[in-house]
């Protein structure tokens, strides 16, 4: 997945999250899943950009597990 595809994925997840939150009695668990997937996508995008900046192959970036991205303090 390249950066453009990753950004599109982020946009799709945000749109789904916003649509869910606008409905009464929305699926709280699904919103939580979307938030986690967004965290992972943003983390992957940051990894790709950092690797590119330092002359490394951005395609070597990998999705990190939920525990890692949830504890990320930027």
Task: Annotate the secondary structure layout.
Elements: H1 3-21, H2 28-53, H3 66-70
Helix pairs in contact: 1-2
Describe this structure in words.
The two termini are 23 Å apart. The chain is mostly helical and 74 residues long. The mean pLDDT is 94. The chain is 68% helix and 0% strand. The protein has one domain. It is elongated and about 50 Å long.
Describe the structure using short key phrases.
3 helices, 68% helix, mainly alpha
DSSP helical segment count: 3
User: From N to C, what is the helix and strand string?
Assistant: HHH
Tell me the radius of gyration.
14 Å
Mean pLDDT over the full residue set: 94
Q: How much helix, percentage-wise, in residues?
A: 55-70%
Number of domains: 1
> How would you classify the helix and strand content by structural class?
mainly alpha
Question: What's the number of extended β-strand segments?
Answer: 0
Give the low-pLDDT segments.
none
Q: For the report, how would you describe the main beta sheet?
A: none
Q: What would you call the quaternary organization?
A: single chain
Q: Report strand %.
A: under 5%
Distance between the termini: 23 Å
Shape: elongated
């Amino acid at each position: 997945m390249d950066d453009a595809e990753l950004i599109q994925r982020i946009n799709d997840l945000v749109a789904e999250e916003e649509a869910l939150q606008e409905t009464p009695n929305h699926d709280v668990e699904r919103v939580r899943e979307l938030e986690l997937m967004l965290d992972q996508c943003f983390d992957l995008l940051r990894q790709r950009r950092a690797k590119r900046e330092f002359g490394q192959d951005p395609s070597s970036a990998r999705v990190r597990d939920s525990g890692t991205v949830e504890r990320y303090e930027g």
